[in-house]
Amino acid sequence: MSEITIRPLAQSDHADWRRLWTDYLTFYETKLPEEVYAITWKRLFTDGEFEPKGFIATLDGKAVGLTHYLYHRSGWSEKNNCYLQDLFADPDVRGKGVGAALIKAVQDEAGKIGVKNVYWMTHETNTTARRLYDHVARRTGFIEYDLL
User: What pLDDT was estimated at residue 50?
Assistant: First the structure.
């Protein structure tokens, strides 16, 4: 049986990260300028409490998934919250535990510094991901608004 490996992103993962993140953005019908790719990659390796961080998932030695997450302050807790910003698994490995393993890795990492609230959003039409999310987390019922 193949084993999923989850580890922090490394500088040597740039090509795999770019491929996976591009596929994630394509799934959401989004394109970002080259400058955003560059600054995001740089920020993933910049020290700082509130800088984004990332994990990559491999299966049989191939990069098949990624997640970005970040910590932020909250007026409701002494500890930070953890926002799981991006989560993606290659379509050919969906249902094999990659997404769940990436979520668990973020939860475990947040727990190491006492952060209990890990949360994320998805689009209401993302039924495949929502099946996983409904299994591993509770749905809060909140509706997102933004001022873009």
Answer: 95
